[in-house]
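Incident review: delayed structure delivery

Summary: a single-chain prediction request sat in the queue longer than the usual turnaround. Root cause was a stuck worker, restarted by the on-call engineer. No data loss occurred. The affected request and its eventual output are reproduced below so the record is complete for anyone auditing the incident later.

Affected input:
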Amino acid sequence: MPGPIQSIERAAAILRLLARGSGRLGVGEIAESLELAKGTAHGILRTLQGVGFVEQDRDSGKYQLGAALLHLGTSYLDVNELRSRAINWADALAARSGEAVRIGAPLEGRVLVVHHVFRPDDSLQTLDVGTLLPLHATALGKVLLAYDTTLKADPEPYTRRTLVTQTAIKRACAKVREAGWAAENGEMISGEAGIAAPIRGHGGIVVGAIGVSGAVERICEPDGGPSPRLLGHVRDAARAVSRDLGASRW
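Output delivered after worker restart:
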């Protein structure tokens, strides 16, 4: 039996490292973390970038996971029709709300963004498809966390508003289950907010979440709570997707 191929093992280690990280990583950081020569790390990253598995930020030169990885893991999404059923409703939600829309599914203790509709204006925006978001600091994540998704890692404090204690997170999850929606307000990125609601499949099982995100002043009321108008649009979209997936309740 032939032995393992070292270059593939190293490429897999780089992908795992980027998946665990909370942001982009530079060549030096990756090389140091994996005890690789900087030239070796750079060569592997360039190869991964060439096939779309990693992306390089033009400004910082740092790397993050690429959207092409999404296509390797979407077979289960095709089975339950989450992404295909939700696309049209996501477009409609963006048009009605005037905000960016993301659809998320649970993946290894994170939120995998499986679809992203840009805010319908002329502003410069970055596609988030394939991005992994934290459960405890995003509206999408709180929805999934409230319905049996496990928080595997210790909660990271992204801002001073991030929920980092198990007590606070459990309390927030209980509120999500009671209300049927989740919100974030400057918990992952200062000045940004979001609203999300669960997408249910057959048997009422939560299989994903759909939500809007944007500047706090557009998403939230002066008291910090979510805009009732936007909340209504998000919940309507979640119900519509759930109906298409065969959910009998939502």
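Verification: The chain is about 40% helix and 20% strand.
Action items: add queue-age alerting; document worker restart procedure.
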